[in-house]
Every structure is written in structure tokens, then in C-alpha cells.
Design brief:
It contains 16 helices and seven strands. Helix 9 runs antiparallel to helix 10. The strands form two sheets. The protein has a five-stranded mixed β-sheet with strand order 3-4-5-7-6, with helices on one face. Strands 1-2 form a two-stranded parallel sheet. The two termini are about 30 Å apart. The chain has three domains: about 150 residues, no CATH class; about 80 residues; about 140 residues, Heat Shock Protein 90 (2-Layer Sandwich). By secondary structure, it is α/β, with parallel strands linked by helices. The longest helix is centred in the middle third of the chain and has 76 residues. The N terminus and C terminus are likely disordered. It comes from Streptomyces vinaceus.
Length: about 450
């Protein structure tokens, strides 16, 4: 538990995935390109009102532009009532389609606006008014540009902009006398709207890709940490297992001398046992070479620069050395109270003995680093079935300087969980109401998985 980010009381609520889940989604991410062709704008927004916003805006545009368009065409341009109503519907209603399919909606609106420009060339009062695009058609067209900019690719947006300019140029050849031309105005405004909304959409896409990459990187870091911790535990357990294999080899080799008068078949059996034990020990040493290698063929020499350095070659500690560990922590200025049951070290298996020591070591390292001055209690007890390890610390002292992070002897809760899983036990960790933290591990003396095997 060397990374206090995993052991501080706020850890369950401040890990990167938890922060990402609680953080409000940026508005530019809401504007990103929909994943499917018919997906509405803002379909991936986290809140219902955000998902409904495009429909509400489109509805308001239609309800306001439709009567205004009919009124302007009838009163100002003196177009026929039938033409005014038809053009008003054709130029505004497709805006509702723009929420899900803006490109077809643009085609319908452009055709309707072009037909409207042709019709207005024969209107009675077109002189002195805007042509070929009326004020209402310009507003509706720009609203459509917003939908297009948030949805379509850059290539499509450029094509839409160029077609808009081309239609304006063609209509210019049929321009009536005395009108105020709006072809250039719409060309400039539509390009500006497409550029701004397309840029916003691009920012949203970039932020979404960044968030996805961060999520993948976080998962990879967690996986790498887990693999590193498993390799480190395997290196530590090598000494324990190698010791037992060496004892088996010596006992099998010395059996004919310690037990004289042994029959020849029995001698051969002990010789076979010794040979198998030596072969298994050699295989374990080769496996350790792979685990300690840095991937460049450095072999055991990498151990000197690995997480544990030369200390990996030293005998592995156990419950019997927890007293020394606590005393060293107290000398560092951390008030620690130890309750160590007599015989706990003798009752534990080698794997449990080592795991219990490492759990206490990493818990105390975190307390020293991230809760200096906190009252800490360490308890190691055992019964007929389990070794129980409990480390509880209070909040850091009021005037203590807390380190923001740093490396330690392991990988925090990941290392603890792996050690507990190795022995078939359970681990319970979490913050306390007063701001402290609790680590409780149950390490069975008889691994249930081994008994099942």
C-alpha cells in the first residue's frame, strides 16, 4: 500500500474513473459528431433537457419563422397568398428534419429558397427589398447551417458553402431592377456559421477521443501495476519454495546414510525423489531469472536495479519481524501501538508469514507518508484457521505535512489484494468516519484452493 492515493480515506471517491464519472460533461463534448447516421444532435448528452434542446430550438424556429415568412411575402413583396403560404411551409418546416438529417433538410430548404427567389422576380413589390434571399429565409438558412456544422464532415461543409455561393451567382443573372442583393451576405454568413460550429464540433470530437484514450491508458496502467506486483510477489516467494525444495533434496540424498539397511528399491526411490527435487529447483531458478529480467537479457543482474534491489537476495521477513518494523516506524516519529499474538509466526505457513509482514509494512508506509502523526494500531492475531491482520490509523496530525505521493515498497491495495488472493484470504479496506483508514486482512492457515486441488 505504498501509493496513498489508494489508501487515503478519500480514495474510493477520488480515483480517476470515479472522478470522470462524477465530473460534468463539457458542453463541447455534447456537440461532438453523433455516432450513427440518423442519431439526433445531442443524443449522447447526459441530461434529458440537453437531449431535447435541439427539438425545442427547431420547433421555436419553425413556429416563429413560418408566420413571419408568410406575412413578409404577402405584405412586403405582394406575392400571391397561395405562393406565400407554400413558400413559407417549404422554407421553414424542413428545419425540424435538420435535428436528425441536416443534409437532406438543407437540400429541401435550398430548393425552396431558390424557387422562392424565382417567384419573387414576378412579385409586384420586389423592388426595394432583399433578393434573392428574403430576411426570413436568411435566418432559417443560418439555423440550418448550425445543424450542418455540428453534424457533417469538413468536406461536406465546404461543399455546402460553395453550392450556396454558386446558387447565388446563378440567380444574380436574373436579378430584378431596384432590389437589394443578399447573395454575398448569405455566402459570407453561412461560411462563418459553418466554420464556427464545425470548429466546436471538432473540439468536442477531440475531447472525446482524449477521454477515451485516457480511459484506455488508465486501464493499461492498472493492468501493468497488477502484473508488476504479481511478479514481485513471485520473486519473494521463490526463496520460501526454494528452501523447501532444498530440504527435500537433502533429505532424499541422505536417507540411505541416515537409515542403514535400506533395500535397493527404496534407495532407488529416494534417488529418484532427489533427482526430481533438483530438477524442480533448477526450473524455479530459471523462472526467477525470467521474472527478474528487465527484458534485455540482463537476467538476475536486473534484480539489483529492480524494485527491491539487492534486498531481493536477502531472506524474506515474516510475522516475527513485525516488532522491528513497528519500532522503526516509531523511531521515525509515528505513534504506533502493536498487539502481536504469541505464536502467530510459528502457526503461519511461509506464504501467510510473508504476506502478513508485507501488508503491515505497506500499511505503515502509507501512514507515515500520508497521515503523519496519526495514532496507529497494529494487531496480528491467529486462531485455529486464520491469521488476522488489522491496521487502523486516525487522521493526520493537524500541523503535519502530507506528501502528495511517492514510491514505496509495493503498489498499494493492488499488492495487498494479490497477496491475500495468493493465500486464499480476504481483504477489507476503507475510510473511517473520523478521517482515518482501516486495513483488515484474513489469511487462512490452510489454503482452501490447495485443499481442493
Amino acid at each position: 500500500m505504498s501509493d496513498r492515493d489508494e489508501a487515503r480515506p478519500r480514495d474510493p471517491r477520488t480515483t480517476p474513473p470515479a472522478r470522470a464519472a462524477r465530473a460534468p460533461m463539457r458542453f463541447t463534448v455534447v456537440l461532438r459528431t453523433p455516432a450513427r447516421a440518423a442519431e439526433p444532435l445531442f443524443a449522447r448528452a447526459p441530461k434529458a433537457w440537453q437531449r431535447a434542446l435541439p427539438y425545442v430550438v427547431a420547433g421555436i424556429c419553425v413556429l416563429s419563422l413560418l408566420p413571419a415568412t408568410i406575412a413578409v411575402l404577402t405584405n412586403d413583396y405582394k406575392a400571391g397568398g397561395g405562393w406565400a403560404g407554400a413558400l413559407g411551409v417549404a422554407q421553414t418546416v424542413p428545419l425540424l428534419l435538420a435535428v436528425t438529417r441536416p443534409l437532406p433538410a438543407w437540400g429541401l430548404v435550398l430548393v425552396a429558397d431558390t424557387v422562392g427567389a424565382v417567384v419573387l422576380t414576378h412579385a409586384d413589390a420586389v423592388a426595394g427589398h432583399a433578393w434573392p434571399w428574403t430576411p426570413m429565409s436568411v435566418v432559417g438558412y443560418l439555423a440550418l447551417m448550425v445543424c450542418l456544422g455540428l453534424r457533417e464532415s469538413i468536406r461536406t461543409l465546404i461543399g455546402v458553402w460553395l453550392v450556396t455561393g454558386a446558387v447565388g451567382v446563378v440567380l444574380g443573372f436574373f436579378e430584378p431592377d431596384g432590389v437589394t442583393t443578399t447573395a454575398a451576405l448569405l455566402f459570407v454568413l453561412s461560411g462563418s456559421f459553418l466554420a464556427v460550429t464545425g470548429a466546436l464540433r471538432g473540439v468536442g470530437d477531440a475531447q472525446q477521443r482524449t477521454a477515451e484514450q485516457e480511459s484506455i491508458s488508465e486501464a493499461e496502467r492498472a493492468r501493468r501495476t497488477l502484473l508488476e506486483e504479481r511478479a514481485r510477489i513471485a520473486r519473494e516467494l521463490h526463496d520460501v519454495v526454494a528452501h523447501h525444495m532444498s530440504v527435500i533434496t537433502v533429505q532424499a540424498d541422505s536417507a540411505p546414510y541416515r537409515l542403514p539397511g535400506m533395500a535397493e528399491p527404496v534407495r532407488e526411490e529416494f534417488a529418484a525423489i532427489a533427482a526430481s527435487a533438483r530438477e524442480s529447483l533448477s526450473e524455479m531458478r530459471r523462472l526467477l531469472t525470467v521474472l527478474r529480467s528487465d527484458g534485455n537479457g540482463s537476467g538476475d543482474g536486473a534484480a539489483a536495479t529492480g524494485p527491491g534491489g539487492a534486498s531481493e537476495l536477502a531472506p524474506q521477513p515474516g510475522i516475527g519481524r513485525i516488532q522491528q518494523l513497528v519500532e522503526a516506524t516509531v523511531r521515525a516519529g509515528q505513534p504506533v501501538e502493536l498487539s502481536l499474538a504469541a505464536g502467530a509466526g510459528r502457526a503461519a505457513t511461509p506464504a501467510v508469514d510473508l504476506s502478513a509482514y508485507r501488508i503491515v509494512q505497506e500499511a505503515l508506509a502509507n501512514v507515515v507518508r500520508h497521515a503523519p502523526g496519526a495514532e496507529t494500531r497494529v494487531s496480528v492475531t491467529h486462531d485455529a484457521e486464520n491469521v488476522l491482520v488489522l491496521v487502523v490509523n486516525g487522521p493526520a496530525a493537524r500541523d503535519a505535512a502530507v506528501e502528495p505521493g511517492g514510491s514505496g515498497t509495493g503498489h498499494g491495495l493492488v499488492g495487498m489484494q494479490e497477496r491475500v488472493r495468493l493465500t486464499g484470504g480476504t481483504l477489507d479496506t476503507g475510510p473511517l468516519p473520523d478521517g482515518g483508514f482501516r486495513v483488515a486482512a484474513r489469511l487462512p492457515l490452510n489454503d482452501a484452493s490447495e485443499e481442493a486441488s
